[in-house]
Model the fold of this input.
Amino acid sequence: MNDIDKVREYFPHVKEKIFLNHAGVSPLCTPVLNAIKEFLECRTLSKGDFNPESAKKFFAHLINAEPEEIALVPNTSTGLNVVANMLSYPRGCNIVTADLEFPSVVYPWLRIRINLNLEIRYVKNVMGKLRIEDFEKAVDDNTVAVVISHVEYGNGFRNNLEEIGEIAHDHGAFLIVDACQSAGAVKIDVKRQNIDFLATSCYKWLLGPCGAGFLYIKKDLIKEHCPTFVGWASVKREIFETADLWNNTELTLSETASRFEIGTPSCLSYVGASSALKMILEYGVDRIEDRIGELIDYLIGRLEEEGFDLQTPKDPSNRSGIINFKISDPIKKVEELREKGVIVSARMNGIRVSPHFYNTKEEIEEFIERLKKM
Ligand SMILES: Cc1ncc(COP(=O)(O)O)c(C=O)c1O
Done:
């Protein structure tokens, strides 16, 4: 049995379905299910608890950060709102983003623009690509931040964060990244990639449950920013190491990224997310990325052989786990495929296919065969 066959044993759905929609909500695997069951049993019998702080070391490891630079947030959208609301917006400033962005990447700044005179500049894609020269033109000394997804949700275009970060930093701006479509599928190194803030959820490529996510804040930036919302989780934890009434007269914010947390997180979700992260880190994100790359190469080759038009740029340096191709009536076709046990999604007037490392070429072939019959 090869190692992919072994991994597939953790995913019981593969016996019934061909799931190629990890850019949506991923199925849970048995290690996650078992960890959650065990947690629920312990809680039911009052036999101990889970400390969600322990999940931070996995998140930190995943992106080459320190656990102190991680705040627990329930999802990407919350993380991006936290960042948008901690920054300052001097008169005449701007935010640079892109026309391919997922709404949650831009909405927090559209909201800020209701009260402040803030310009939002959209870099326009050219044939599905976001070009570095267009970021160079859009960013200037009045740019507060470039806010961008690592991987774009519709066509899977992978942005070169290192270069975009360099452009932002040359102008004194921050690089804020939505990693929802990359974390778990593509390597992330916040230091090498010049990332100042990064938010993600765990229910896509990280194979965890909904309700668990994290926000990375670069160490130097933590203490110079103040949270918009605060609660017991935002302050130095020593305050609670007393049998007396806890101090409610002073707000002594934590010096770690915890200052951006508010209250009790969903332990259940972080139990599951930790278990999934353990599996992903043990297998290795490098190997996962390579494996997804092989499947994507195969998928591109087969789609082109069958005459489909790709909406995903083909340059390997901009590839991710997502491929999109044009098709007529995509919503109906996706529904028909679902009825036949093949799960993909409809985006950008095409079909979005997003295999993970445990998928196989045989599954992709089966998807192509079903597509040809439509
Ligand atoms: C790029 C990107 N960001 C964020 C999200 C979802 O955000 P949240 O996890 O906050 O629901 C998605 C979901 O498809 C996405 O593709």
